[in-house]
Specification:
heterodimer, A: about 425 residues, alpha/beta, FAD/NAD(P)-binding domain, Immunoglobulin-like, 3 domains, seven-stranded mixed β-sheet, five-stranded parallel β-sheet, 27 strands, B: about 120 residues, alpha+beta, CPE0013-like fold, 2 domains, five-stranded mixed β-sheet, three-stranded antiparallel β-sheet, 2 helices, 10 strands, about 35% strand, elongated
Chain lengths: ~425, ~120
């Protein structure tokens, strides 16, 4: 059996940053396992700009951002196997993968970093009634077809869901000559970044219909049209509000789900809201020595934050291999209230914290002039006013080790309240 | 003097700051709400001569992939976006292509280069 200190599952932005960080923390026995024939993950098809302002202080496209990290991996000569699909991770950290060149391979790891990313929610998970013709794609599939394969999936487009990929594809299809008729969003707010509403929809006069959904799909061989309807406050279509749109293409941008089949099979405990592993301050799961970072942990809207998070996982994996990551019990639980849906991490052991720890979270609704509060037990320790908080934009609070160490704190609470 | 207030969403980075511009006779005089200098530059441009970076793909002959990603090196006037797309779609290049290769010196008279943002090795 092959041996490696740290095996990283996935060679996208999270896996690459974790590998570089683990190397720079001193480990020289790392293996990246990537399913695709090239490193970079989903960034390779995200050809639009806007990546890397935090990390590189300049605005890059997805492939350029990926190339910077791939170069760092290559300079360090970190081994990676491409075209290799991981089939299983055992609780004993034996990784089984298969490739057309190596066949079935097993690797015994000392530490594992889960960096498999996420998947789009497919039509089957949305319960849209109607026929099942050709012409219905997830937005990411259409993005791959246009940007990597060089095909246009259609000419007259309706988009369901206003996630960032849907917004980006509204612009991309428009630039390539398609007519994007409407973007329908079930919720009363967009799930995408504001800048994408402006530069992908407003720039091209594409209407965004909030509180609308697709209630019927028409066409037997190829999609010929969809029916949109307004929904009530419970998300139920309101009779009499139906409108027909003729189109040959329906793109779905209705959310992303962390890709955790491998994690679950290995016995990794999942967090209920994120659909990602439940992790501590070191981004370690309930399985000692198994870490998670990037979109497999929780869906991010900024790759820069994925890179930062992955670097922490990489460093902690090295600390674990070196026997420096101590486990002192369950850690302080981080609870949420008043509009905060979840936090990452979910527990904090102050002993293992860096000087500061970034706790990331999302809210469940749009808030204006709201406060982000942090409580240590019953004591409010921070109170920050924010003009706008939205579900589509990940938020953070920063905790200091010196405030937590030796204080015998039983609970940390992150709360958002209306001002 | 005619005073006008316009509210914009800055598109420079994912923060998406809401920026308010005060215009006197159509000239921006005051920008508020931005959290960095990019926001001020964006807001002043957006109310006078809006610009965008265009990203797309061009056909590659003999490459490992059928297309390679490209961008205008800097932003171009917004009204030239569709003309830039026509020029991009009319172009085919030979593999190999490397990140940063200049594929057009001056796209549509904007004075801006079209550069590759992806590597495309030969097959």
């Amino acid at each position: 059996m092959k041996q490696a200190d740290i095996v990283i599952i996935g060679g996208g932005p999270a896996g690459l940053a974790a590998a570089v960080s683990a190397y720079d923390a001193g480990n020289r026995n790392i293996l990246i396992i990537e399913r695709d024939e090239q490193l970079g993950g989903i960034l390779n098809q995200c050809i639009h700009n806007g990546f890397g302002l935090h990390t590189f202080k300049e605005e890059l496209t997805g492939p350029e951002y990926a190339a910077r990290f791939i170069k760092q991996v290559e300079e360090r000569e970190i081994p990676c196997v491409l075209g290799s699909m991981v089939l299983d991770i055992s609780p004993e950290k034996v990784i089984t993968y298969t490739s057309s060149t190596e066949g079935l391979v097993q690797v015994q790891a000392k530490a594992v970093i889960l960096a498999m990313g996420c998947r789009e929610r497919p039509r089957g998970a949305l319960n849209i009634p109607g026929y099942r013709p050709a012409g219905i794609f997830s937005a990411g599939t259409a993005q791959r077809l246009v940007n990597i394969e060089g095909y246009m999936p259609g000419r007259e487009v309706v988009i369901l869901g206003s996630g960032d990929i849907g917004l980006i594809m509204a612009r991309r299809m428009t630039l390539e000559g398609a007519k994007v008729k409407v973007v329908a969003e079930l919720m009363p707010y967009s799930g995408g970044l504001k800048r994408n509403i402006v530069q992908c929809l407003d720039d091209f006069g594409i209407p965004l219909k909030l509180r609308h959904t697709v209630v019927n799909i028409h066409g037997k061989e190829r999609l010929t049209g969809v029916t949109l309807a307004e929904v009530d406050s419970h998300g139920k279509p309101i009779p009499g509000t139906e409108e027909e749109y003729s189109c040959d293409t329906l793109l779905l941008s209705c959310g992303l789900i962390p890709e955790n089949e491998l994690s679950r099979n290995a016995g990794v405990e999942m967090a209920p809201v994120t659909n990602g592993p439940s992790v501590n301050e070191s981004l370690e799961t309930n399985l000692e020595g198994v870490f998670a970072c990037g979109n497999v942990l929780h869906v991010h809207d900024l790759v820069d934050y994925v890179s930062q998070e992955a670097a922490i996982a990489g460093r902690n994996a090295v600390a674990f291999v070196n026997g420096q990551l101590k486990h002192h019990g369950a850690g302080i639980p981080v609870s949420v209230s008043g509009g905060v849906r979840y936090t990452v991490p979910r527990t904090i052991d102050p002993e293992n914290m860096d000087d500061t720890l970034t706790v990331r979270f999302r809210v469940g609704a749009v808030y204006q002039n709201a406060y982000i509060d942090v409580y240590f037990d019953d004591k409010r320790v921070s109170h920050i006013k924010r003009p706008v908080l939205a579900p589509g934009e990940m938020e953070k609070v920063v905790l200091r080790k010196s405030d937590l160490l030796g204080q015998n704190i039983q609970n940390i609470k992150v709360e958002v309240t209306q001002g | 003097m005619k005073t006008e207030i316009r509210e914009l969403t800055c598109i420079n980075c994912p923060l998406g700051c809401t920026v308010t511009v005060e215009l006197h006779d159509g000239e921006p005089v005051k920008v508020t709400g931005n959290t960095c200098v990019r926001g001020e530059i964006y807001a002043k441009k957006e109310v006078t001569h809006p610009t965008r970076v265009v990203t797309s793909t061009i056909r590659v002959k003999g490459g490992a992939h059928p297309v390679v990603a490209v961008k205008t090196r800097t932003d171009v006037p917004k009204e030239t976006i569709f003309r830039c797309m026509e020029a991009i779609n009319a172009l085919t290049v030979e593999a190999p292509v490397s990140i940063g290769d200049v594929l057009m010196e001056d796209i549509c008279g904007t004075g801006v280069e079209l550069v590759a943002t992806q590597n495309c090795p030969k097959t």
